Amino acid sequence: MILILIGPPGSGKGTQSEKLIEYLKTPHLSTGELFREHISSETVVGCEAKQFIDRGELVPDHVVDNMVAHTLEQPRFESGCLFDGYPRSVPQAEALSQLLYTQHREVNLVLELSVPDSVLIERLLARQRVDDTLETIKHRLEVYGAQTSPLLEYYEQRGKLETVDGQGSIDDVFGRIQAVVNRLKIDISNAEKSNPSTSSN
Ligand code: AP5
Ligand code: MG
């Protein structure tokens, strides 16, 4: 299953991913986490990404797309992938779609976590990651609105988008996500029964 979690900074993508990978037994790919690993290992990609991350800007598409394509080659992603924070722009979504096409796969579900800005700011200021200053958080929210939110319409038009209320306790939010994922699993299994030749792994 190819699943994408979309949501503004602090909406709970990382938090809910931890629970979802356990539940679905699907490997997790967070571009933010990959960049933080590159930065702490001082790689070329890390040095390039750091200047953008520190300012709350998106890292250029070609850098992200190459890193994702390279990571997805790992055998552990053959069974599927839970994307967290990727794609984050329409060109990235197009690049992912092309990449999956070459692997005879496609996006099954895009889950949007919806949370008001006031709650996001409160959560992130309490967390205190390096890029969690008030100024950077506000800019990340603007960037989300300008560059990432058009993806919601993009995936809506393709019949892939489900929006989940990301407010409330972590378990409440996960319960809502589980309900959507379980419905999708039933849809996929019914489609495979009616047309076994389209069955995927
Ligand atoms: P990334 O690491 O993806 O950061 P982000 O999108 O800003 O999101 P966060 O990780 O801050 O939030 P989250 O939604 O994961 O929430 P979390 O679960 O942690 O990206 C960082 C940077 O890398 C970007 O700004 C960009 O520069 C670059 N980048 C990454 N991907 C890129 C791409 N594709 N293209 C270009 N650039 C890219 O939760 C937040 C806090 O809230 C936690 O403390 C958590 O405990 C708490 N919390 C979560 N859920 C709840 C709840 N229900 N109730 C109470 N508290 C909660
Ligand atoms: Mg995260």
Task: Describe the SSE topology.
Layout: E1 2-6, H1 13-24, E2 28-30, H2 31-40, H3 44-55, H4 61-72, E3 81-84, H5 90-102, E4 109-114, H6 117-127, H7 134-148, H8 150-157, E5 161-165, H9 170-194
Parallel strand pairs: 1-3, 1-4, 2-3, 4-5
Helix pairs in contact: 1-9, 2-3, 4-5, 6-7
Bound molecules: BIS(adenosine)-5'-pentaphosphate (AP5) and magnesium ion (MG).
Can you characterise this structure?
It is globular and about 50 Å long. It starts with a strand and ends in a 7-residue tail after the last helix. The chain contains nine helices and five strands. Strands 2-3-1-4-5 form a five-stranded parallel β-sheet, with helices on both faces. It has 201 residues and is of the alpha/beta class. Helix content is 59%, strand content 11%.
